[in-house]
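About this split. The held-out portion is used to measure sequence recovery: a designer receives only the structure tokens and must propose an amino acid at every position. Recovery is the fraction of positions where the proposal matches the reference. Here is one held-out target exactly as it appears in the evaluation file.
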């Protein structure tokens, strides 16, 4: 099934929430879709919430060493979970 970029963002959120993909895959795919493919019309709510998720996704690192060497630069899996769960409730309501 072919998805629009906007549909793909929602699909990725559902996959992540359902633990069907890991944080690294989610972040890579969300970042690419949001920053390079998205040309759909977004509501103001979608624009704000997707942007917040995209910011975390773009700066995600699964490597503990990155977080030690560059504190405050990279986001953790916990950060991804927080932003996805917090924003998904509003996006899916």
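Reference sequence for scoring:
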């Amino acid at each position: 099934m072919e998805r629009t970029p906007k549909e793909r963002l929602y699909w990725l959120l559902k996959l992540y929430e359902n633990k069907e993909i890991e944080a690294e895959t989610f972040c890579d795919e969300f970042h690419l879709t949001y920053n390079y493919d998205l040309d759909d019309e977004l509501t103001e709510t979608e624009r704000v919430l997707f942007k917040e998720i995209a910011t975390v996704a773009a700066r995600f690192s699964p490597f503990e060493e990155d977080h030690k060497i560059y504190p405050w630069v990279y986001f953790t899996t916990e950060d991804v979970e927080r932003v996805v769960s917090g924003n998904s409730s509003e996006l899916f309501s």
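Annotator remark: The helical segments are 5-17, 23-37, 44-58, 64-69, 77-91.
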